[in-house]
Amino acid sequence: MEKEKLKAVEKLKVALEVLRISPQFFFLEARRRITGRSYYFNGIKISDSSSFGVTYELKKRASRFRLICGKNGYYLVDKKWNIKLFSPSFVMLRPVLYEDLLDLKVYQLSEKDIQNKRILDVGAYLGETSIAFSLMGAKRITAYEPVFYSVARRNLSINRIKNVEIRASGLWSENGYLHVKEEAENTGKHMGALKIKVKSWLNLLKKEEFDLAKVDCEGCEKGLLSVPNRILRRVPLWVIAIHGDELALINKFKNAGFTKEVVSRGLENIFRFEIEKNFRRE
């Protein structure tokens, strides 16, 4: 009951904010929710909650972001960082805006965590987090993105980001292939027809050195359960979005000598695991 009240309050806050931003936007959206009728606002067709959410975030933060409709997709221009992010779908920009991925706010990572560090970015999506790591002073970034690899690579090129190596695969408990359901930002949550290549977590962590691993890959974090504790400790700081049951992975990191901090709970449950001082990297 309490959750329902909180949701109702949040919806009311959004409605009042939309009304303040634009009465026209407010009444068009109210009509859509009552009648199911789509509408255009600022040249964008709004037909569901996702397209409304992106438009709302853009209007709310118009001083920083603007949208350019291109021939084959959309470009989100971020005036703060002076970058341009391509997306083939308008709705795919929702997590970038809603979760402040270009500032890494959802992961609550500081410049101290990032500067001059070797970073593993698992679940690079459109390349926005890899770009953010680079702009914030990372030494190098190794990124994995099995579904939107070509889009992420394009965005790295557009913004002339040179210290990111992006790989067209996911990570799992072993090398091979998985079948997932493609649902934009929810890719990988469910089994489906989309075949993706995956590489072994263990092989990667044994061969390469990282100071920080950001893992937001819609389920591939479960593959870490098969990695020996001594190998996990080779990376001193992990920030992981855990999808589904959390306890097994939390216990895994605890037993490996990591402290746990809850970064955020909501659409994603994100945890920070940091090696305890009495443990040394192996």
Could you characterize the architecture of this molecule?
The protein has a 7-stranded mixed beta sheet, with helices on both faces. Helix 6 (128-135) links the parallel strand 6 (118-122) and strand 7. By secondary structure, it is an alpha/beta fold. The protein is built from 10 helices and 15 strands. It is 33% helix and 26% strand. The chain folds into 2 domains: 1-60; 101-275, Vaccinia Virus protein VP39 (Rossmann fold).
Distance between the termini: 49 Å
Any idea what the shape is? globular
Main β-sheet, spatial strand arrangement: 8-7-6-12-13-15-14
* Main pleated sheet: 7 strands, mixed
How many structural domains does the protein architecture include?
Answer: 2
Using only CA atoms, what is the Rg? 20 Å
Low-confidence stretches: 186-190
- As a percent range, the share of strand residues is 25-35%
What do we call the CATH homologous superfamily of the largest domain?
A: Vaccinia Virus protein VP39
Residues in helix, %: 25-40%
The helix tally amounts to 10
Known CATH architecture of the largest domain = 3-Layer(aba) Sandwich
Look up the CATH topology of the largest domain.
Rossmann fold
Global structural class: alpha/beta
Let me know the average pLDDT: 91
What is the element string, with H for helices and E for strands?
Answer: HHEEHEEEHHEHEHEEEEHEHEHEE
Can you count the beta strands? 15
Which CATH class of the largest domain? Alpha Beta
